[in-house]
Amino acid sequence: MRKLYVTSFAYAILGLVAGIFFREFTKINEYTAYTTLKPLHTHILVLGFMFFLILTLLAKTFRVHETRSFDPWYFVYNGGLIVTLIAMTVRGVLQVNGTDMNGLNHIAGLGHAILGASIIWFMVLLGKKIKE
Question: String of b and e for 77-90 (b: at least 16 CB within 10 Å)?
Fold first, then answer.
């Protein structure tokens, strides 16, 4: 359960840093158009910090972290989130610099697909613990 708290805390810090980076990086480069750096802050805070904070409470209540496939789920979810966040960061920096990279949207899409599958997987794990 401590692992969930530490994960939540790490994403909270990362989300706040991402918000500062967005603000300062676009200001330094005098960039005022849309960039994917803007929603990066929110993605990290909601899908990382808030999600794992709620998960910590669910672990305390339903002991969901004790299911057999919880550890594999944990790594798959975080992997999908990290892939998504890296793709968003790279895309945002390239947008500010006036360039782009082919295939980046596919990488971000893969990260989102992994996240979607992981959310369904988690709901199955939670459902099993609720039935007990």
Answer: bbebbebbbebbbb
Return the amino acid letter for 103.
G
Cα–Cα separations (whole angstroms), residue 112 to 26, 45, 47, 49, 84: 25, 16, 11, 17, 6
d(CA 13, CA 125): 28
Measured CA distances, 43 to 19, 66, 89, 107, 108 (Å): 11, 27, 11, 16, 12
Record the pTM. 0.92
Mean pLDDT per block of 10 residues along the chain (132 residues) reads: 95 98 96 94 97 94 90 97 96 94 91 97 92 82
Cβ atoms of 37 and 88 within 8 Å: the answer is yes
DSSP letter (8 states) at residue 30? T
